[in-house]
Amino acid sequence: MMALETRPFDIAEHLETEEDIREFLKAAAEDGSPDVFIHALNTAARAMGMTEVAKKAGVTRASLYKSLAEGGNPRFDTIVKVTEALGCKLKVA
Fold first, then answer.
1. Is the separation of the CB atoms in 25 and 43 below 8 Å?
2. pTM of the entire predicted model
3. Tens of pLDDT along the chain (93 residues)?
4. Which of 25, 17, 16 minimizes the C-alpha distance to 82?
5. Backbone dihedral angles phi then psi of residue 7, each to the nearest 5 degrees
6. What residues does the HTH cro/C1-type domain cover (predicted)?
7. Number of folded domains that form the chain
8. Does 51 reside within a domain?
9. Which residues contact 72 (CB under 8 A, 6 or more apart)?
């Protein structure tokens, strides 16, 4: 019998459009956990391309990786800039 080859699932590979990213971030925001939302921003930024998101957000790629990494503590203005670079806006409802 042949062994089944598997690989880790990465949602970033399936976020193909701005609409996909918007719905993904919306669901993460509804969770209410800052850690979940920051992790979702990381995933969405990887889906779009960290270099492109960093350029649009006006930050360096290295600082973007550091800010959105697990345990990172991004400033609120960084979260806003990255969210906008991903084609979204933060909104209070």
1. no
2. 0.88
3. 788 899 899 999 999 999 999 999 999 999 889 999 999 999 999 999 999 999 999 999 999 999 999 999 999 999 999 999 999 999 887
4. 25
5. -145, 155
6. 50-93
7. 1
8. yes
9. 38, 66
